[in-house]
Recover the amino acids of this structure.
């Protein structure tokens, strides 16, 4: 069946049909992302002072990804222009660059940005215990400067100190073997604990640590954390505000008592409203990038037949998919500052 | 059907089109490159402004949103051809903006009438 108005304008709308269709779709996309952005705004406004994290994402990498997405928006419009000018080779070239940009964007997300979050450890300290951890939080210093308090100690797990009920020792030991962990006796004879590390001398991943302390009969006593720069030297003026270049992790280790923690986790969605809405929005955006890349690959590999038959129809297909791609770029233009910079 | 499909056999096919003649498009190419360059420049400006103290954090948020809206406007007007687009699409967009604001309003309503007992430490 022939679909009408592929290249000519329908008299009553003044548009070819696919263009009308894509704009209706984009209108629904505005509502989809709009709902999530409104969630972001009100979660953020509702967060207690100091509880909305800042400076946790890698700004240089985010900037680079923004530039890559903008470049791909340019190349997709050039690919469309090439088709309008009936330059097939040029179209192929610009489309290929667009596809590569989309793949780089996704690869950066999935290899450099997200995985690092899932091994990062953060513990929110109970408000009435902040004074005990002043050396890592620096809240007296921050109050003096009128800055928001810092409620969290973060870094990477160095070890988990646990107490194990003797009758549950078997379950505990088999868990250690399964996850390539080792336990040694703590050095303080007054407080006998088992110190759990992996076989490289680092702490377990947060997700494994969670399972460990949930084994019946195993009680978390303390978490040893290789500190992030902000907690290693919290009163340094350098750490008062976020920086463009992310600071190196320190080799300083802090011990946080389990009873002083209000909640802890990896930098995963459950860590905070911030990461929940960060992963939801960037995840949905990433799926859109993936969808665009798949469509572009299809047009790149299989577009020639239609182009030979009806080049204007092919140009319109690229224009419509390009409109979708520009919309995805447009969403990112807002995502980048609200999560990385503000 | 109303479509008119001329047979195209040449290496560079040349079907007639009712608007956007090829030479018009070639004139626009330079504009696309300039807009792309502008967007990159404004990305770096956004990043730089984030580290400038405008007096309050709210002021920084406002400045960043103004720059982002300007960039989004460039993408929509030039790359998405909204500049000079048909009236019908503008009408659609008017309603989209209207309903998107309505959506934000609905979320905002929790602010004046929160569910009892749900206010706790947010993080």
């Amino acid at each position: 069946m022939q679909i009408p108005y592929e290249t000519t304008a329908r008299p009553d709308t003044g548009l070819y049909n696919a263009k009308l269709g894509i704009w209706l779709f984009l209108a629904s996309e505005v509502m989809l992302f709009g709902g999530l952005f409104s969630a972001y705004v009100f979660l953020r406004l509702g967060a207690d002072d100091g509880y909305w994290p800042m400076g946790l994402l890698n700004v240089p990498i985010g900037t680079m990804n923004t530039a890559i997405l903008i470049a791909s928006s340019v190349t997709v419009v050039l690919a469309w222009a090439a088709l309008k000018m009936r330059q097939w080779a040029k179209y192929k070239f610009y489309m290929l660059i667009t596809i590569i940009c989309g793949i780089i964007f996704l690869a950066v997300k999935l290899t450099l940005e997200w995985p690092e979050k899932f091994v990062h450890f953060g513990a929110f300290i109970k408000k009435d215990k902040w004074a005990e951890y002043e050396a890592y939080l620096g809240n007296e210093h921050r109050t003096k400067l009128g800055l928001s308090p810092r409620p969290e100690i973060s870094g990477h797990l160095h070890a988990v100190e646990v107490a194990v009920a003797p009758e549950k020792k078997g379950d505990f030991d088999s868990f250690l073997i399964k996850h390539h962990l080792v336990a040694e006796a703590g050095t303080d004879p007054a407080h006998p604990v088992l110190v759990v590390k992996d076989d490289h001398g680092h702490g377990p991943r947060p997700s494994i640590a969670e399972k460990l302390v949930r084994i019946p009969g195993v009680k978390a006593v303390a978490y040893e954390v290789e500190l992030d720069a902000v907690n290693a030297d919290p009163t340094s003026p350098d750490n008062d505000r976020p920086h463009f270049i992310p600071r190196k992790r320190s080799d300083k280790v802090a011990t946080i008592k389990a009873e002083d923690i209000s909640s802890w986790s990896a930098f995963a969605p459950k860590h905070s409203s911030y990461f929940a809405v960060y992963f939801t929005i960037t995840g949905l955006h990433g799926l859109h990038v993936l969808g665009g890349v798949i469509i572009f690959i299809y047009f790149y590999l299989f577009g020639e037949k239609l182009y030979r038959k009806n080049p204007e129809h092919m140009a319109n297909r690229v224009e419509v998919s390009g409109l979708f791609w520009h919309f995805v770029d447009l969403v990112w233009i807002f995502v980048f500052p609200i999560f990385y910079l503000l | 059907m109303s479509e008119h499909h001329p047979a195209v056999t040449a290496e560079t096919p040349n079907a007639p089109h009712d608007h956007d003649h090829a030479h018009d498009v070639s004139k626009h190419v330079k504009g696309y490159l300039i807009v792309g360059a502008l967007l990159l420049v404004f990305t770096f400006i956004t990043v730089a402004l984030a580290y400038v103290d405008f007096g309050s954090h709210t002021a920084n948020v406002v400045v960043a949103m103004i720059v982002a809206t300007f960039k989004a406007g460039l993408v929509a007007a030039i790359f998405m051809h909204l500049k000079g687009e048909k009236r019908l699409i503008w009408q659609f967009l008017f309603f989209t903006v209207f309903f998107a604001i309505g959506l934000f309003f609905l979320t905002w309503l929790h602010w004046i009438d929160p569910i009892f007992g749900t206010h706790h430490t947010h993080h």
Summary: Residues 36 and 115 of chain B are 46 Å apart (CA to CA).
